[in-house]
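User: I've been trying to design a sequence by hand for this structure and keep getting stuck. Would you show me what you'd pick, starting by listing the structure so we're on the same page?

Assistant: Good idea, let's start from the same input. This is the structure you sent:
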């Protein structure tokens, strides 16, 4: 019987040691050794920290997704992503050095210096610019690009914008393989001048 008392005493001592790991007033689950419970709490805290880190990473990935700009679709979506996030430099990099940009029907600017000014206003609103259907027609390093889009934004003076259109663009492939806008006409046929009015004399 002596050996039983010895082990019983050892179990009691271990129980006392396990108990001291818990804060005052905290009791471990029934049937679960207190030391193991303490470890499970610590593991849970680490799991929560890991989950939080993963959520931050997912958010960063959503804000900075990877676009394959060696495809026309990837290049166009990269430009739209930059506009949505107010990234003027990123949006400007989507244009050829000699590009032409139709800033509004009947008005266009040429060259990156002038295009930057137009993009500063557009990106400054961080508009909700979304793509719809699209199609490209490639021949060598030149391609025609047709892209439906919607845009919602608020101008600096508080005017709400709710726009949509179908772009009619020309894109060029650079030596590094990336596609960029050579002509960006987001208004498509809406950029056509109005037909002259005709009057009939009886």
């Amino acid at each position: 019987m002596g050996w039983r008392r010895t082990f019983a005493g050892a179990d009691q001592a271990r129980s006392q040691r396990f108990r001291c790991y818990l804060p005052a007033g905290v009791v471990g689950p029934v049937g679960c050794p207190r030391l193991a419970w303490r470890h499970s709490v610590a593991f849970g805290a680490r799991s929560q920290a890991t989950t939080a880190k993963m959520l931050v990473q997912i958010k960063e990935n959503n804000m900075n997704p990877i676009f394959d700009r060696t495809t026309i679709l990837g290049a166009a979506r990269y430009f739209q992503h930059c506009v949505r996030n107010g990234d003027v430099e990123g949006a400007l990099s989507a244009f050829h050095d000699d590009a032409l940009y139709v800033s509004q029907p009947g008005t266009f600017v040429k060259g990156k210096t002038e295009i930057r000014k137009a993009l500063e206003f557009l990106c400054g609103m961080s508009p909700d610019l979304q793509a719809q259907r699209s199609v490209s027609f490639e021949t060598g390093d030149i391609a025609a690009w047709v892209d439906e889009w919607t845009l919602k934004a608020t101008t600096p003076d508080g005017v709400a914008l709710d726009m949509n259109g179908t772009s009619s663009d020309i894109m060029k492939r650079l030596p590094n393989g990336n596609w960029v806008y050579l002509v960006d006409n987001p208004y498509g046929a809406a950029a056509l001048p109005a037909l002259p009015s005709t009057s009939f004399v009886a």
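That's my pick for every position. To get oriented when you compare it with your attempt: The chain has a mean pLDDT of 79. The chain has two domains: 7-62, 72-190.
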